[in-house]
Amino acid sequence: MKYILIIVMLACSICGLQPATAGSDAKSLELLVKTLNSTASPQVRTILMRGMLSGLAGRRNVEPPKGWKELSKKLNASQHAEERDLFQQLSQIFGDTEATERALAVIEDTTADAGARRTSLRSLLAQQNAQVSTKLESLLDDPAIRLDAIRGYASIENASAPRILLDRYSKMDEPMRRAVIETLATRKGYATALTNAIATGKIDRKDIPAHVARSLDVLLGEQFIKVFGEIQDLSADRAKLMAKYKAMCSPEAMEKADASRGRAVFSKTCASCHLMYGEGGKIGPDLTGSNRANLDYILLNSVDPSYDVPEGYKMVLIQTVDGRLLNGVVAEEDARRVILKTVEQPQVVIAKEDIEARKISAKSMMPDGQLEQMKPQEMLDLIKYLRTTAQVEMAK
User: Fold this and answer.
1) pLDDT at 77
2) Rounded to an integer, what distance in angstroms lies between the CA atom of residue 337 and that of residue 59?
3) pTM score, whole prediction
4) What Rg value do the Cα atoms of the chain yield, rounded?
5) CA-CA distance, 223 to 290, in Å (whole number)?
6) What is the 3-state secondary structure (H, E, C) of 118-139?
7) How far is residue 360's CA from residue 327's CA, in Å, rounded to a whole number?
8) Is 263 exposed, middle or buried (0-12, 13-18, 19+ CB in 10 A)?
9) 3-class secondary structure for the chain?
10) Long-range CB contacts for residues 167-170, cutoff 8 Å, separation at least 24
11) Dist CA 342 CA 327 (whole Å)
12) pLDDT, mean of each 10-residue run, the chain (396 residues)
């Protein structure tokens, strides 16, 4: 019971659910460290450190609490991997240079566990470590950590990032290309290089998803539109498009459609944001219990996803003081931080002190024109799957 109360105190004070001061933070952390030092249970220490890490997410250069050095003597030699990992991540937040050096060594160790390497990389990026940015290029050659390395360039600005990523683009597979495009749409300098690559044909215009085009428009405005063209707003043609797709979804066409193939289409185009039958992302609404039997409902939300966006799913655009642009749906918010769910990552923590500008978009996170980009049979198969009442096998 004592440990539960301590975690609640940390959540309330450090996470910002109640007004906090530097003094109250220090006392909460000191109490936690005192308990960590007094317990002999690795399980209890792990639970407490998870709570600490959650409460301190998004924060940097926090003064180490009293007793932390004493604790380090115990936990650096712990036989429990998760306990050691949590301790190392917290040590970085507390400015421990030795912990930072160990994390840098882990990410470069190709024999180390891939999960540990990714955790170390994300932790260093969260701390805005300058050294890790210089190591990202070498990590691009390692399949185990390549995706995280690509996304790492968004976290810390690196003048070489556009050249490095664009030079490798043609040799990458589709998921990695998508990550490159999304990363280069997070900062003005990156966006300029990406726009130039579109202009010269190095990047195909059709490789730019609608949500990325919106970000590039925000960052560059007319400079991007001159190259890409006006970003289509299909809602004006809603009635015409609804009629078009409804005619295509005739009873005869739907009879020939295949829900298993449709599940594969869903996995490729929708599952990054939506859950269905317990699988997929959690950015948009869970579609399992929605009105999927109604063809008009499906078509309206596909043709014009911004027609009626629920309050909790409105897209928020955040510009950070170091020039990064993020867009997503707010998962959590308190006095100190905003946690976004984005297409690229399920959770991005942004300290409020790092936010320069923020606005709510009238647009849904779901891009316009999804059906327009599909082949007719793919569209029919997807509709068939969306109208199922039970999960089906995915076509291979």
Assistant:
1) 76
2) 9
3) 0.74
4) 24
5) 40
6) HHHHHHHHHCCCHHHHHHHHHH
7) 9
8) buried
9) CHHHHHHHHHHHHCCCCCCCCHHHHHHHHHHHHHHHHHCCCHHHHHHHHHHHHHHHCCCCCCCCCCCHHHHHHHHCCCCCHHHHHHHHHHHHHCCCHHHHHHHHHHHHCCCCCHHHHHHHHHHHHHCCCHHHHHHHHHHCCCCCCHHHHHHHHHHCCCCCHHHHHHHHHHHCCHHHHHHHHHHCCCCHHHHHHHHHHHHHCCCCHHHCCHHHHHHHHHHHCHHHHHHHCCCCCHHHHHHHHHHHHHHHCCHHHHHHCCHHHHHHHHHHHCCCCCEECCEECCCCCCCCCCCCCCHHHHHHHHHCCCCCCCHHHEEEEEEECCCCEEEEEEEEECCCEEEEECCCCCCEEEEHHHEEEEEEEEEECCCCCCHHHCCHHHHHHHHHHHCCCCCCCCCC
10) 168/140, 169/197, 169/202, 169/203
11) 6
12) 52 48 70 87 88 85 87 82 89 90 92 90 91 94 93 94 96 91 95 96 88 88 92 67 89 92 89 85 79 82 74 85 91 88 84 92 72 88 90 88
Give 311-364's CATH code, choosing from 2.30.30.100, 2.30.30.140, 3.40.109.10, 3.30.70.3270.
2.30.30.100
> What is the spatial distance between Cα 310 and Cα 293, in angstroms, rounded to a whole number?
20
pLDDT at 162: 97
Residue 136: count other Cβ atoms within 10 Å of its Cβ: 26
Residue keyed to tokens 């429990």:
80
User: 162, 194 in Cβ contact below 8 A?
Assistant: yes
